[in-house]
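To: structure subgroup
Subject: Chain for Friday's discussion

All,

I'm putting the inputs and outputs inline so they're searchable in the archive.
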Amino acid sequence: MAESALSKLPTPAKIGAGAALLALTGIAYYVVFYGDLQSGIAAAKSKEGQLRGELSEARKAQFAYEKDRAELTERQQRQRELNKVLPPTSEYPSFLSAVQNVANVAGVELSAWTPSPEVPEVFYARVPMKVELVGRYHQIAKFFYGVGQLDRIINLENVSLAKPEVRGEDVLIRVEAMATAFRALNEKDTAAGKVDKRGAKKGQK
């Protein structure tokens, strides 16, 4: 049986050939397997960096959103508090209800009330309502104090006292006053030309 060419080589040559074969195998392994593995690791690191950047941006966006949401909630709360003091509409029913509630607490009889037309100013409008009250002196004083404690601003002006009246053991007085609330003017009021720069009704001198 014929011997192969490798078997004819001397031992050193056989060792050299084996070493060369191992080297080629190692190079092939590096190129095929290790090279692909390194490329995969590099791609994974690049993707990780991208995801970290996106996560950081998402966290910044979430922080900004939460901040804006908190500011919006605070602004809405301030607006609700402001609307209690200076509502955007006349709200005569709630105006009268507030006065009536104070009268009930003070023990005063609200005998009459007459709403009057609004009086526009520069940034707000006066909402007047004439009221007539009957009660004892300390009840009237308590009523005036209670009106001053309301959330909505209400002034009592042009106060006049009638002659005291004796009813049984009580001495009652009749009070007439102009209760004036206020409301904020809005863009519709300005667009409709209800007020000029001086705050007077359009057409008035």
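Points worth raising on Friday:
The two ends are 134 Å apart (CA to CA).
The chain is about 55% helix and 25% strand.

D.
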